[in-house]
Specification:
- It contains 17 helices and 20 strands.
- With about 625 residues, it is of the alpha+beta class.
- β12 and β13 form a beta hairpin.
- The N and C termini lie far apart (about 75 Å).
Length: about 625
């Protein structure tokens, strides 16, 4: 499409003004001078070489990222993806980093994505995927304020973990890719800056299928005085891979021998649920102990009970499986992928809860066994200093005190009744320990958790586990991500959802030819009940019920009837929640209430936890005078 002459002239003026504003001529002269200084004997510089030099320095990206035309913005906004500015650190911040090199930083830029297979059939354009991250580089037990040389940075083998999540219009999330990037190639790049494409692979059954491509830019601040050669970096990476492969091989040999010894104890051990390895989202077999780490939440979680509540708010969803059948897809998730996705299977919940309980100083283990009807399940167990055994259900935050049955007790002696839903236990593990149940029966009600007794529990060598699961043991272990503080405003989220609920109630009653009158005072009184419900879920202690009942009695006149219906959700989708409420006959009776002087109330309270996990409490209520 051609432009009229006046528009062409206007466009040229806009571009020239922009180039002058960012001092493009000065930057080009710097690149020319630097290229001539680095390679003085190359002769004449070709146009292609000069373009590559400009691209390596990020000058082309700097020119293009700020050029935005009104038509482009309108197109992106209309397509459902509002235009997002390139959220980069400004020139002022970067200048300060260059002038005050007190710390070492890696500036990671995601410049965009393409060729995402799941998105090719959709009419909407690919969302803007440009992001910036400033990562501080430091070694363990090293002075964080000291600038490192390239050789020191080469010893930092922790990769950058990319997790790509797709979110649909209803808020449902799907894990698209999980990729580990070795950033150390930047140590051999000119000016410690490099730009390249990263091919992302799918997850689960599609882990061998490309999912898409990201364009990534890496830059070190400040750049090291001397760069490393590409051969040095590849040699280091090869040595690390060889060392890791040898450790994995030796552990596999040990695990096979340990398993043969376990089967020789009893023939029935073949059917026990003992799992030494588990596949992650990338199809990589890892020791189950590597999925548990000591995780401290700082001030984001107040206690172990709050940790259990937080984990239970992450939705439960089994890994998707292509095709039919009733089998279960084998997929455990790395902690980063689980937290980003916000949902996972019982194994993901149990390993996260165990990690958090270890952080709170408890002697915690993940248990693998079965529930009713032989359904495989995973939960958490803690051992008190007095020998008390407590089971923690990570999907609900319920706790159960375990009291084993004594099979040798006299027939008429009283025995404790099973308090938990668990039927058998095959093995227990944490970040340092793996033990298989070798008692005559794997029934939970008969199980004695005396781990020091080798006739009851067969333990793996802690040294062998440490070689593949300990800190710094190998480069294949994913780095441990910290929990993120919530960015959601609980008051604003509560108010928004409550207004949407009022509108839905009004429309529903309007369809029934019923009027809607709200009692704002009664709405406010419901807050204390919702707060008490959440406190009880967290701590197991009920409080404040007497005050709530007294306040309701004062608010409801004699001769009138009060009805209330509380319900709990893990999402903030108003229409979905309202549809669920209407499926309850008791709630529908309140919403569709008929009578004299009918007054309605609804209260929403959103309790926000780390990673924006939400406990949404909703209560409908009404007061009315019955007319016979």
């Amino acid at each position: 499409m051609s432009l009229p002459p006046e528009k062409t002239s206007e466009l040229k003026q806009i571009i020239q003004s922009h180039l002058k504003k960012i001092n493009i001529h000065g930057k080009i002269q710097e690149v020319l001078a630097e290229t001539a200084r680095v390679d003085p004997g190359s002769g004449r510089l070709s146009e292609e070489d000069f373009r590559r030099a400009l691209q390596r320095r990020g000058i082309i990206d700097d020119v293009m990222k700020d050029l935005r035309f009104s038509q482009e913005k309108a197109t992106k906004t209309a397509s459902g993806f509002p235009s997002k500015p390139f959220s980069h650190y400004g020139d002022k911040e970067m200048t300060e980093l260059r002038q005050n090199p007190s710390r070492q930083y890696l500036h990671l830029q995601v410049l965009g994505g393409k060729a995402f297979l799941e998105h090719l059939q959709e009419p909407e354009p690919l969302p803007d995927m440009r992001e910036n991250f400033l990562l501080e580089l430091c070694r363990d037990n090293a002075d964080g304020g000291k600038v490192m040389d390239a050789a020191s940075m080469l010893s930092i083998c922790d990769p950058i973990h990319f997790v790509l999540i797709k979110t649909d219009i209803s808020g449902e999330t799907t894990l698209v890719s999980s990729y580990f990037l070795d950033w150390r190639t930047v140590l051999s790049s000119t000016n410690s800056k490099t730009c390249f494409a990263v091919e992302l692979m799918g997850v689960g059954s599609e882990c061998k299928v490309p999912a898409g491509v990201l364009t990534v830019n890496l830059e070190l601040y400040p750049p090291p005085a001397v760069n490393l050669s590409a051969d040095v970096i590849s040699t280091q990476q090869s040595l690390e891979r060889t060392r890791t492969a040898e450790k994995d091989r030796l552990f596999l040999v040990y695990a096979k021998q340990w398993w043969r010894e376990f089967l020789e104890i009893r023939a029935s051990h073949q059917s026990k649920l003992v799992k030494i390895f588990a596949q992650d989202e990338n199809g990589v077999n890892r020791p189950v102990c590597s999925y548990v780490r000591v995780l401290r939440a700082g001030r984001l979680l107040e206690s172990s009970r709050h940790a259990a509540r937080f984990v239970s708010l992450l939705a439960h969803e089994r890994a998707p499986m292509l095709g039919g059948g009733t089998g279960k897809q084998e997929q455990w998730c790395t902690l980063m992928a689980f937290l980003c996705r916000g949902k996972g299977d019982c194994e993901d919940h149990a390993t996260l809860l165990c990690s958090l309980l270890l952080g709170f100083g408890l002697d915690a283990y993940v248990c693998m066994g079965t529930k009713a009807k032989g359904v495989p399940h995973t939960w958490v167990m803690t051992r008190g200093t007095d020998g008390t055994i407590t089971f923690w259900e990570s999907l609900t935050a319920h706790r159960y005190l375990h009291r084993p049955v004594d099979p040798d007790a006299p027939p008429l002696s009283p025995q404790p009744k099973p308090s938990s839903p668990y039927r058998t236990v095959g093995c227990v593990f944490n970040h340092q320990t793996f033990m298989a149940n070798c008692q005559p029966s794997d029934s939970v009600e008969l199980c004695v958790f005396d781990f020091q007794n080798p006739s009851r529990w067969k333990a793996m060598s802690e040294e062998a586990l440490r070689s593949v699961c300990g800190p710094g043991s190998c480069t294949s272990l994913p780095p441990l991500p910290p929990l993120c503080a919530p960015s959601l405003d609980p008051s604003a989220a509560s108010n928004q959802l409550e207004m949407e609920m009022r509108y839905l109630v009004y429309e529903h009653r309007k369809d029934l030819d019923l009027g809607t009158v709200w009692d704002d005072h009664l709405c406010y009184l419901l807050s204390s009940a919702l707060s008490a419900y959440e406190m009880e879920r967290c701590t197991g202690v009920s409080c404040g019920n007497e005050e709530f009942q007294d306040a309701v009695r004062r608010a409801v006149p004699d001769g009138q009837t009060f009805k209330g219906f509380p319900i709990h959700f893990l999402h903030r989708n108003a229409r979905r929640a309202f549809a669920t409420c209407l499926r309850s006959p008791f709630c529908e009776e309140i919403i569709c209430c008929r009578g004299d002087s009918v007054r309605l109330a609804v209260r929403v309270w959103v309790f926000v936890y780390p990673e924006n996990a939400c406990a949404v409490w909703l209560m409908f209520a009404c007061k009315y005078r019955s007319v016979l």
